[in-house]
Specification:
- With 333 residues, this protein is α/β, with parallel strands linked by helices.
- Helices cover 36% and strands 17% of the residues.
- The protein has helices at residues 16-20, 32-38, 47-79, 83-86, 107-118, 149-154, 169-180, 249-265, 283-306, and strands at residues 11-15, 95-101, 137-141, 186-192, 197-206, 211-215, 241-246, 315-319, 325-331.
- Strands 1-9-8-7-2-6-3 form a seven-stranded mixed β-sheet.
- Strand 8 and strand 9 form a beta hairpin.
- Helix 3 (47-79) crosses helix 5 and helix 8 packs across helix 9.
- The two termini are 33 Å apart.
């Protein structure tokens, strides 16, 4: 009897154990206290998770960044004196990493860990006697490009905060394009989770980093056609590598509600917190509101907009019920 061919996939699927074996000699330079500081509320990342998951990922990214630099050298050789308006070399541009996933899935922790690991001093390469200098690694979240609450209210979008239409997508794409092009300084708006709004007059300055990490719900979405019907350049078109943090929807809902409980006992206690009112009602009433938000905002956004972009990622981290990565899918070249 003929056998049915195995289905093809653009990804190499790996178990946690297989992935852990790809760490090679990448050193662990973070302490337990530093990992504690980097992880998000409700996340359970510990040193074991860093060793098994994030050190192999740091090694892979270092290989990608080195290859990116080598490709730039090849381009300079090809262009010769035509490069950069008559200059003999093209100046370096940042390596851009996108980190996507649902609310409460742990993508912020992933982004912060990558920032810390990629900024660490590196061993000598190419016969050099001294270690290579630490990279300048900047992390920007897309929250800063949410429309201000007043504008969301004016457009009737306050109940769809976090959906693609609630962002200034043009400004976000232009920001990353400007950083990627090597502009000396590019600024971004600043978002406050305390006030649940853009901070008026405050800007985050990014000055020619070696690596830029962009973290957010919708960073892998393709560009929408313009009003003239033409295809535009999307945010993800500027990424050199992207990570999607994945988990079962039921697990993410549980993590979201657990995080809401913890925030109610901590950050929401601040008199300036937008959500202060949920500390003044019973836990049952507060959780009923959180469940309503999950089922009317976060879950629909995940299913309609975030999850469909998973297949665009370079690497998918698949978490189990305990917030620990169990499998990984790496896109083939």
């Amino acid at each position: 009897m003929p056998t049915t061919p195995a289905p093809t996939s653009p990804y190499v699927d790996l178990t946690r154990e297989q992935w852990r074996g790809l760490r090679d000699r990448t050193p662990l330079s973070l302490t337990a206290a530093e990992v504690e500081r980097l992880r998000g509320l409700g996340d359970v990342v510990d040193l074991e998770e860093v060793v098994d998951v994030y050190l192999p990922l740091a090694r892979l990214l270092n290989l990608y960044i080195a290859a990116h630099s080598g490709l730039r050298g090849a381009l300079n050789t090809f262009l010769g004196d035509l490069a950069d308006g008559g200059q003999s070399t093209q100046p370096g541009t940042p390596f851009v990493i996108g980190v996507a996933g649902s609310v409460a899935v742990g993508k912020s922790t992933t982004a912060r860990l990558l920032q810390a690991l990629l900024a660490l001093p590196r061993a000598p390469s190419g016969g050099a006697a001294r270690p290579e200098p630490p990279r300048r690694v900047e992390l920007v979240t897309t929250d800063g490009f949410l429309l201000p609450n007043a504008e969301l209210t004016r457009r009737g979008l306050m109940s769809r905060k976090g959906f693609p239409e609630s962002y200034d997508r043009r400004a976000l794409t232009r920001f990353v394009a400007d950083v990627k092009s090597g502009k000396p300084e590019v600024t971004a708006p600043v978002y406050s989770h305390l006030s649940y709004d853009i901070v008026p007059g405050e800007r985050l300055a990014v000055r020619r980093p070696d690596v830029l990490i962009v973290e957010g719900l919708n960073v892998l979405q393709p560009a929408l056609p313009g009003s003239d019907g033409r295809t535009r350049i999307g945010l993800a078109d500027h990424f050199d590598f992207s990570v999607y943090v994945d988990a079962r929807t039921e697990d993410i809902e549980r993590w979201y509600l657990d995080r809401f409980r913890k925030l109610r006992a901590t950050a929401f206690q601040d008199p300036g917190s937008y959500f202060r009112r949920f500390t003044e009602v019973s836990e049952t009433e507060a959780l009923e509101f959180a469940q309503l938000v999950w089922h009317t905002v976060n879950r629909p956004n995940l299913e309609e907009n975030v999850l469909p972009t998973r297949s665009r990622a370079t690497l998918v981290l698949r978490k189990g019920p305990q917030h620990r990565v169990r499998r990984l899918s790496l896109r083939k070249l």
